[in-house]
Amino acid sequence: MPNAYSRAMKAHESNNEGIRLQKILAQAGFGSRRKCEEMITEGRVEVDGELVTELGTRVDMSRQQVRVDGSRVRINPNHVTLALNKPRRVLSAMDDPKGRYTLADIVGDKYERIFHMGRLDYDSEGLILMTNDGELSQHVMHPKYEVEKTYIATVEGKLSGTVCRRLVKTGVQLDDGWIKLDHCAIIDQKRDATIVKVVLHSGKNRIVRRIFGSIGFPVKRLVRTQIGPIKLGELKSGSYRVLSQTEVRSLSKAVGL
């Protein structure tokens, strides 16, 4: 006797409701329609917790949940996620009573209810992610799902490899506790400055500046180049781009969605 799920799926198909599963996967950035069909027949796709291998299956994304290899597929045509390259002296906010330049001045009013996920301090530059997807925003900013963030920092003085290794292995004690870097590598050195690549999970305020300042190497310039799987790439300062469905899917997976 067919279970409730089977009866529900047959009802959807007979009424021609929903969208074919392979089309949903293709729209979500899983590849061509043919590749998505192969994923279904290989038994990698679930609908409402049930394995689906029939290519004719139709799904109503407003009422049903699709997962591929255990990761949830999320599609909403009204959702948009942006990567923005924040210049120096731009406030990580959508408005400012003091009249300073903000993220809203870069993005404009094209997107409704869009907001930044995390911040960069006023004098720092680089990647900021923005979205009107509340669930994605909550996960990206929640401490439980802290994703790796990569920075290129220019610090005063000659930083040694020994100090870099100590920041990763031991860390430093700040006013709000101990903190370690996930990765620290010297990229270049000049007579009075060192350029270093830094990777860490913490999203605490001004954390990179505080770490290096605490050991006597004040940060002269700080650029965030990556958040989780999303890279700044060749995006020009003061501009933004819309993330592809593939990028949104990889970001969602990184934060447990």
From TrEMBL:
<dbReference type="Pfam" id="PF00849">
    <property type="entry name" value="PseudoU_synth_2"/>
</dbReference>
<keyword id="KW-0694">RNA-binding</keyword>
<protein>
    <recommendedName>
        <fullName>Pseudouridine synthase</fullName>
        <ecNumber>5.4.99.-</ecNumber>
    </recommendedName>
</protein>
<dbReference type="InterPro" id="IPR042092">
    <property type="entry name" value="PsdUridine_s_RsuA/RluB/E/F_cat"/>
</dbReference>
<dbReference type="InterPro" id="IPR020103">
    <property type="entry name" value="PsdUridine_synth_cat_dom_sf"/>
</dbReference>
<feature type="domain" description="RNA-binding S4">
    <location>
        <begin position="19"/>
        <end position="78"/>
    </location>
</feature>
<dbReference type="GO" id="GO:0000455">
    <property type="term" value="P:enzyme-directed rRNA pseudouridine synthesis"/>
</dbReference>
<dbReference type="Pfam" id="PF01479">
    <property type="entry name" value="S4"/>
</dbReference>
<dbReference type="InterPro" id="IPR002942">
    <property type="entry name" value="S4_RNA-bd"/>
</dbReference>
<dbReference type="InterPro" id="IPR050343">
    <property type="entry name" value="RsuA_PseudoU_synthase"/>
</dbReference>
<dbReference type="InterPro" id="IPR036986">
    <property type="entry name" value="S4_RNA-bd_sf"/>
</dbReference>
<dbReference type="GO" id="GO:0003723">
    <property type="term" value="F:RNA binding"/>
</dbReference>
<comment type="similarity">
    <text>Belongs to the pseudouridine synthase RsuA family.</text>
</comment>
<dbReference type="InterPro" id="IPR018496">
    <property type="entry name" value="PsdUridine_synth_RsuA/RluB_CS"/>
</dbReference>
<dbReference type="InterPro" id="IPR000748">
    <property type="entry name" value="PsdUridine_synth_RsuA/RluB/E/F"/>
</dbReference>
<keyword id="KW-0413">Isomerase</keyword>
<dbReference type="InterPro" id="IPR020094">
    <property type="entry name" value="TruA/RsuA/RluB/E/F_N"/>
</dbReference>
<dbReference type="InterPro" id="IPR006145">
    <property type="entry name" value="PsdUridine_synth_RsuA/RluA"/>
</dbReference>
<dbReference type="GO" id="GO:0120159">
    <property type="term" value="F:rRNA pseudouridine synthase activity"/>
</dbReference>
